[in-house]
């Protein structure tokens, strides 16, 4: 797995929320290295005026976390997505997340994610995010889980819908 089409085949996110551009390395069940290019054309910058101060172009940390989480999902899933009826992946939590810098348009985020363990339908990972040789984030623990897809009950034929 490495090309964007292969990433799209595994992750359910789509533009503009697909935040992994390429897989550089994958050791199934152990380690993944991915990259995400921060572009000035991303929706998070759409309302900023041309004259905005440079610090306002810092990439939102919430999107950096999401990008790291998508990288962790790729590591957990390997090269095949779960069947559609097998549930939905969810970000469950994080501990010891430390930011040591910011990213700006033109920067390339490199996520290095290590899978610690998988217990039932819950995965635990840790890692770092880099821009070049500068570490910008450290993740002590990321927790992801898979939960069943809730499906609305369908009343039998001929039964009126309970709500008008």
Automatic annotation (TrEMBL):
Pfam families: FabA. This is Beta-hydroxyacyl-ACP dehydratase. SUPFAM superfamilies: Thioesterase/thiol ester dehydrase-isomerase (SSF54637). It comes from the Bacteria. PANTHER family: 3-HYDROXYACYL-[ACYL-CARRIER-PROTEIN] DEHYDRATASE. Keywords: Lyase. One of its GO terms (molecular function) is lyase activity. The keyword Glycoprotein does not apply. The keyword GTP-binding does not apply. The lineage of its organism: Bacteria, Bacillati, Actinomycetota, Actinomycetes, Micromonosporales. InterPro entries: FabA_FabZ, HotDog_dom_sf. Belongs to the thioester dehydratase family. FabZ subfamily.
